[in-house]
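It would be a great kindness if you could assist me with a short task in structural biology. A protein sequence and the C-alpha cells that stand for its backbone fold form the material at issue. I should value your view on which stretches of the chain appear to form regular backbone elements. The record follows directly beneath this note.
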Amino acid sequence: MTELVDRPLAGIVLRLLSGVLFTGMMVCVKAVSETVEVGQTVFFRSAFALIPIMIFMMWRKEFPRGLATRRPGGHLLRSGFGAAAMFASFAAVALLPISEATLLAQLTPVMMAVGGVVLLGERFSRQRALALGLALAGVLVLILPSLNFESSTGNVTGYVLGVLSALLTTGALLTVRRISRTETAGAIAFYFILVSALAGLATLPMGWAPLSQEALGLLVLSGLFGGAAHICMTLALRYAEASRLAPFEYVALLWPILADLLIFHVPISSGFLFALPLMLAGAGLAAFEGRQIRWPLRR
C-alpha cells in the first residue's frame, strides 16, 4: 500500500484540478454526442486514457510490476461494472445538461451507504436512512418537471440512465473496497480502462460514425482529460484525508454549471436548483456517516 503524505493544500488543489479535468472530459463527450456512437466514444475515451495512466504508473515505478494481480475475478467484476457505468453516463450526457448528469452522480455515496448495508452487513443507521430520503427527494424534484411535458421524453430517459450510472458506479466502488487490500490503485485503474476500451471496441460491428478531424480531436482529449482526472484524484487522496477533500467535491459542481452556461448555452433549470441542496445534503450525510455529526455533540 502507498504511504500517505500529509500535504492537505496539495490534495485540495489536485481535487479541484480533477474536477476541472473531469468537466473537460464531459464537455468533449457532450460535443460529439450527436454524431458519434456511445460505444465509439467509450473506446476512444478509454484507449487514450491509458496514456496518462501508464505514464503515471511508470513514474511511480509500478509498470509493469504493479499490474500483477491476485484477484483477476475481482478486477473483471469491478471493470465490468465500471464499463457499464461509463456507457450509461455517456448516454445520459447526450440527453441531459452536463450539470444535471453530474448532479445525478452524487447519488453514488448514498447508494454506497445502502450497498454497505445490503452487501457488507453494515448497520442501517438513521443517518443513512435520512441520506437516502434526501437523495430520493432530490431525484424526484429533478425529474418531476419533465413528466409534465410530452416533448421531454429524452430528459426522462437521460435521468434514468444517470441513476443507472450511479448504481453501476456503486457496484464498481464496492468491488474496489474488497480488492484494494491486495491490489494497487494503478492496477485497478489500468484493468478498468482496458476492459472499457475492449467493451467500446466490441460495438464496432454495430456501426461507427466516420470522424471529422474535430470529432477525433475531441475524443482524444476526452481520454487524456479522463486519465489525468483520475491521476489527480489518486494523488489528492494520497496527500489529504477524504474528510478534508469532501467539501471540495461540491465545489466541483461549479464547473459543469459554467460549461452548460458558457459553452452549450443551456440555462440552469428550476428543478436542478431545487434538487441541488437535497442531493448534496444526502450525499454529505452518507459520506460523513456518523463522524462529523457526533463529534461536536460529544464536545
Q: What stands out?
A: Residues 293 and 299 are 11 Å apart (CA to CA). Confidence is low (pLDDT under 50) at residues 292-299.
